[in-house]
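Side project, low priority. Logging it here so it doesn't get lost.
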Amino acid sequence: MAETARLYTQPSCGGCIGAKNVLKKLGIPFVEVNVREDEQAAREVAEFCAAEGVQASTPVVVFGDEVVVGFRLDALRALKKD
């Protein structure tokens, strides 16, 4: 069974839409979590972003041990290991 990514999003987030499209195109299954509806998810995003030294924002993709903060096409593509 393929590993599933966790995609933290919020409404009206262009980068979130882009991240969803990239994950779909790469064939990486994911679960979308809206940080506006899930307080625990919002805290998790804040922790991931703090670890990267940036202000809390979306999208955040967690896939295995990898965390991609923001819409970074190169980092999202690097999640696909053949």
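Brief comment: The first helix runs from residue 14 to 26.
Revisit when time allows.
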